Amino acid sequence: MGLGVPALVLPFSSNRFVVAGDAERAGAGPVLDPNGLKPSDVPAALETVWSTAAPNLRALAAAVRARGPRWAAAELLTAMDRQVPGG
Question: Fewer Cβ within 10 Å of end Cβ, the chain: N or C?
Fold first, then answer.
């Protein structure tokens, strides 16, 4: 996402589904269930990537780069603090 390349996201397990959903909501690309994906589904999925994600990805990538890793770390630590009793 930071490089401005759209993605077809195929999560396989655990937290990858959460991360995939975040990527889709951010506009980085659609999420498909890899267990139900057929070879015939791939061309349409890639068309979706290029028609929906690609036009907006440059601005999204710039926003990600502008915030930087320190912002991401601070957001993560804040979220984790809310999860810890007494945090």
Answer: C
The rounded distance, in Å, linking the Cα atoms of 30 and 42 is: 12
Would the pTM count as exceeding 0.70? no
How many domains does the structure of the chain reveal?
A: 1
CB 87 within 8 A of CB 31: no
Which segments of 1-87 does DSSP mark as H helices, in order? 16-26, 42-48, 54-83
> Is residue 16 within 8 Å of residue 32, measured between CB atoms?
no
Residue 10 lies inside a defined structural domain of this protein: no
For 20-71, write each residue's pLDDT tens digit: 888 888 888 888 888 888 989 888 888 888 887 777 777 877 887 888 888 8
Q: Is 53 left (phi over 0), alpha (psi -120 to 50) or beta?
A: alpha
In a domain, 3, yes or no: no
